[in-house]
User: Fold this.
Amino acid sequence: MAESILVTIDGAVLDPDVPILHGDDLAAVRGDGVFETLLVRDGRARIVDLHLQRLARSAKALDLPAPDEEKWASAIDTGARVWAEKNDNAEGLMRVVYSRGRESAPVDAVVSRERDDTGLTRDIGGATEYLTVGPVPARAAVVRENGVKVITASRGYSIDLAATAPWQLLGAKTLSYATNMAALRYAQDQGADDVIYLSSEGIVLESPRSTVIAVEGKNLMTPPAESGILGGTMQQAIFTQAEKEGWQTEIGTLRPADLVCADAVWLVSSITLAARITEFNGYQMSAPEQPEDFSALVDRAID
Assistant:
């Protein structure tokens, strides 16, 4: 059985079975915080820079203090190394968590350091910052190999909402994930594996945990972040690698018909990496002649 890892931002490796959150931490009672998930492979967390850049953007959107990227990078290295040592170099799912801290802390509290009775050094009056590493869910290997059945679901708002209502936090990776989890349960109730959200105009947005990429030959296309979706770290890494290798990449509007007509459509994310859509709203998607070309591109993108 895999041995989970818990590391604080200052690099302390703690017992993962000892509680780290106070009952009034705003991560738990309000979802008032941000997070990132990183793949640990061969003892190393992948595309760390892109994840830390997005963590900083998400924190800014929530008016959280800018995360200390140097400390986070060091903690991430520690977490990946300890995970690999304790789990025979298996793939791991790393989750970085950064919340506003305790609800009971005064707004103008002076941040100070103290060691509590568990031996944990905490920021008193400050944010809560830690990471965990656990096994990659078995689902990831299955969908990498077999693909996913997907249905569309309305998100209920226009692609203009992100620009006109920044308090909706549409481009931030927040801890408030209840709606996304409800969408995934809805998909399962309908006999599907995943959802692709559509705007009120019927424009393709994203999956609750993935970015959509349509493939036509050596051309890749994905929806724009300005439409109110989370900028995908995996998508950015893939596009960067693809451009180096002579693929054409494009950020643009996609509609459901565009997905049906594409050579292939993939859901990409940091943990699953790439899952090809095999069924879309009940329609059997055609299989590309060489799906391994895209999968191999993804693997190169995270090396």
Remarks:
- The chain is about 30% helix and 25% strand.
- Residues 69-86 form the longest helix (18 residues).
- The CA atoms of residues 203 and 301 lie 27 Å apart.
